[in-house]
Write a structure and sequence with these properties.
66 residues, two-stranded antiparallel sheet, 59% helix
């Protein structure tokens, strides 16, 4: 359990350090992401991005547990 928490913490730190470059990637603007913009209101639901991240993380965890 402690090994898993350390790995998760290191991943969060790495993502935080790389954030200036990661924010320039087109994630969050993929086809299928829901964006509603109206006067005085905006709503964004990145469903396609969440599915893609879920698949990648599931594959990585599957590989680490082998």
């Amino acid at each position: 359990m402690s090994r898993t928490l350390i790995i998760i913490g290191l991943c969060i730190v790495t993502i935080g350090l790389l954030w200036p470059w990661l924010s320039k990637l087109p994630f969050g603007q993929l086809p299928g992401d829901i964006a509603i913009r109206r006067e005085g209101f905006s709503f964004f639901f990145p469903i396609t991005t969440m599915i893609l991240i879920s698949v990648v993380l599931s594959a990585m965890l599957w590989l680490f547990n082998r």
